[in-house]
Design goal:
By secondary structure, this protein is an alpha/beta fold. It has 17 helices and 25 strands. It has an eight-stranded antiparallel β-sheet, with helices on one face. A hairpin with a 6-residue loop joins strand 7 and strand 8. Helix 7 packs antiparallel against helix 13 and helix 15 packs parallel to helix 17. It is globular. The chain starts with a strand and ends in an 18-residue tail after the last helix. Bound molecules: fructose -6-phosphate. The site of fructose -6-phosphate (F6R) has 15 residues, from helix 8 and helix 15.
Length: 618
Amino acid sequence: MCGIVGYIGREDAVPVLLKGLKKLEYRGYDSAGIAVLGARRLLVRKSKGALKYLEEKVDAEFSAGELAGTMGIGHTRWATHGEPSDINSHPHTDVSGKIAVVHNGIIENHAKLRSWLKDHGVAFRSATDTEVIAHLIDFHYNGNLLQAVTESLKRLEGSYALGIICENEPERIVAVRKESPLVVGAGKGENLIASDVPALLEYTRDVYYLADREIAVLSRESVEFYNEDGVCIEKKASHVDWDASAAEKGGYEHFMLKEIHEQPKALTDTLRARIKTNASKSIDSKSINLEEIGFDASWAEANRIVIAACGTAWHAGIIGKYAFERFARIPTEPDIASEYRYRNPIFDPRDIFIIISQSGETADTLAAMRLAKKNGARIIAITNVVGSTLAREADLVMYTWAGPEIAVASTKAFTTQLMCLYLIAFQLGALRNTLSKEELARALAALELIPAQAEAILGAKENIQRFASQQFNKSKVFYMGRLFDYAVSLESALKLKEISYTHSEAFAAGELKHGPIALVDPSTLVVAICTQQELFDKMDSNIKETKARGAAAAVITYEDVSYFDDTADELFRIPRTLDSLTPMLSVIPAQLYAYYTSVLKGLDPDKPRNLAKSVTVE
Ligand code: F6R
């Protein structure tokens, strides 16, 4: 977690840093801070709580010209070591206050370094792991910041993205990363660093993605890159063609609502270049174009598919299981990355590993991938972030073209992850002949309709808003379903709990009577997701069982189904598609329900308590 920024140029650094931090606030909002270098004096200002408190703090000083300076670094914190407080906020400085450091990550050997530095007379101020870095750099500083950084890196264990400035060197920012994201933006007469691209877009679209242990030295006119030994290296810039407004709220009250509404486009973008349906040509495996990612027939020889991911991405993986087993007849095991990596898993060289992560930086997910890779596995990454660690380390990368996802609660990343998984499942099915040409043609035709169908659901969002206004105070909300609908229930319950703090759970509907039904009482809202046609009668009985215990029941089902009209207290309709594709649609009413519940409770759905967007700690 945590977001870092850095600027060196000709403008006043304070507003540039604050604007950059605003774009990164989703990464943590326990505290914020900046260090500005002006008139050869390093000025550090920091404040506990959201960025607005720092803004308030620096406003008058900046207006009075007391924070002038055209280079600086900034930080927005998600606390790990040390409680949120002014003292523990970044930037951290060495004892003399001439070196300032912002850090995203965790220094694992900080306790050892702290006691070693104390033995060398260093007095610590904070409880953070980061402070050791500032002192360590000072310890090695001999008039050359780059050299001091390379020496210090030799002693650091753990993960870091660092921005470092030194009062004695007003012409450069040194930045380095290992296992935490960091992007360098190359402008004209100005250069920047940031944890994520949106913070750079106002200034440049030419970016460099640092690899692990690579160091960037930014001056006003140039950026130079070095390896960990301080040897100069060449790097190629990438051009980011996102629309800057894609990283803004675009008229919506919250990023989450905007991102829910972006799903039709995100689904189209994720699908478009990957299918080649043409009425005059017959449909076969070539109708799916996964060549761009290097997918060939050899992948279809897999005996097993293993999926590892966290949170929402793991829920996508469960849907992937149903799709792979149904269409490609390949046994599939979706696993929570933080469980997978510690359970001494069994490897087979013919396995396919699919690793799913919106950010491409989730620590447990990366660790699961590295474990699989070390054991010879072939890895397909599904991620939304170009140049992310996951994208760089996997054998094949399939991007979800969802655009930046800023809200902490994942929405468009989920549905586009599903789109990718279905495409792989259909491709494998076609290559293995477990899917007939007719079935493939039907499936691809249905996929092409999904974006417009998602749009239609969004067009009826007032129904969900009205329902939420009646139900938002419910103390218990249980989602239930079978097969694909069960996986969507897991995701729906997660969405609701994380942004509205409602106690919500998901159950496989058939399991209800094996225990969970004991929780059902008149204070319960049950939302049954019913899109698996052959299981309608079973679902109807399950809904009735909960209603008999006093629960209110809402049902999400197809628009042309009247099966539940008499059972449900409320019905939400989705357009007809193949039963196996419904997750991309049935989750949308649940996303909206979670969003409106959060807003009605007076909460900020973009910034749920205790959560951060990118979970780069284990
Ligand atoms: C929930 C949510 C999280 C993430 C999880 C994995 O709305 O966003 O559960 O899905 O932290 O993140 P990524 O996909 O970035 O690996």
